[in-house]
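Give me the fold.
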Amino acid sequence: MPTRTSETGRRAAVLGSPIAHSLSPVLHRAAYAELGLDDWAYDRFEVDEAALPGFVTELDATWAGLSLTMPLKRAIIPLLDEISDTAASVEAVNTVVFTEDGRRVGDNTDIPGMIAALRERGVEKVESAAVLGAGATASSALAALARICAGPVTAYVRSEARAEEMRGWGERLGVDVRTAGWDDAAEAFASPLVIATTPAGTTNVLAPAVPDRVGTLFDVLYDPWPTPLAAAWSDRGGKVVGGLDLLVHQAVLQVEQMTGVPRAPLAAMRAAGEQALAAR
């Protein structure tokens, strides 16, 4: 396990539980190598909510930033001096930058990362959209859709409690959110943009229902890839944006914030991520 202090160089890391599967070290280290930041290090640490305050307190002045994954995106907020409007909009922080004067500033790069990943595939505006699922990633999806979707968003969920939660996020984010039951999830495929935010395996049963004509699918999973839904979508000629696209684009923004470089090396980071996934 790497130490949490260093006499030389700059440090960053991803925290979460579980964390062993995280590709963040691969992406950030690839960026450091491409940028010639030889004295920068990026590690991963298994940290749960109970251990988080102690971990953050022990970090020394060599630390530049942290990436946060589940279950820490909300737990980190009380430990910060400031959070961005983007992070506040969904009450979730996935990026912490330590400033030169010792302040801890939180941001959420998942939301602009989603928008950038879609823009890369030519999707900048849509008239309507559908979201599969209602977890934390779904709220980030709604925040992204608030910026690119002109009309209603239908969320397909498993319970009325989840439906109410998604409608609440819609009100907060200024999105016209309508809800439907999971049994009708295949109806989502008529939307010009479908964002699948559910855990691995959940949408597998929907793959045979993909119609002949489809728009764009954004499936936030990346391992294993492609998912059966993504594969079926591609077979129908639809555009597919994957979880690695999201992971790379949000990591690009993290690298830029933590290091201060104006532009992180997207291509090198993506290539490193693809290579790491292929080796699994």
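The mean pLDDT is 95.
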